[in-house]
Amino acid sequence: MADEASRTAFFEIQGHMIETTAKLKQVQNQIHSKELEKKRAYLTLEELRPLPDDTNTYKSIGRTFVLEPKSDLMNEQAQKFKDSENALSSLQTSKEYLEKQIGEVENNLKELLQQDPGLARQIMSLSVM
């Protein structure tokens, strides 16, 4: 009976680990995406700054380019930069939380395997099949 309970607990922990790892990977991908967006906005701002105010600038909308005042483009890029920074700080917090959860799940798994050494053998025999 305890053997079956240990086995069930193991599979629950394993499922939680898989779920948490998937969430962490998703957050890491979002962080990467926001970093690229932030960098693109920063570089665009750096290219626009030295231009005279009366320069014709164009905004890309899909495959079309629309004439935009330089100030509007700069404001838009600055807002994208700020939004990306805010999103990155939020995503970083989520990443740290998920990493902490993974550590806790790993500790729970180690504890379970130390409490029931026979469980490790059973799990290994299941994975060989």
Quick summary:
With 129 residues, the chain is mainly alpha-helical. Helix content is 81%, strand content 8%.
Can you walk through the features of this model?
It is a single chain. With 129 residues, the chain is mainly α. The chain has one domain (2-128): Helix Hairpins, CATH 1.10.287. It has helices at residues 2-48, 70-115, 117-128; strands at 57-61, 64-68. It has a two-stranded antiparallel ribbon with strand order 1-2. A hairpin with a 2-residue loop joins strand 1 (57-61) and strand 2 (64-68). The longest helix is centred in the N-terminal third of the chain and has 47 residues, at 2-48. It is rod-shaped. The mean pLDDT is 90.
Neighbour order of strands in the largest sheet:
1-2
- The rounded Rg comes to 25 Å
Number of strands: 2
Could you estimate the helical fraction of the residues in percent? over 70%
Shape: rod-shaped
User: How many separate domains?
Assistant: 1
The sequence of SSEs as H and E is HEEHH
Low-confidence stretches: none
SS-based structural class?
Answer: mainly alpha
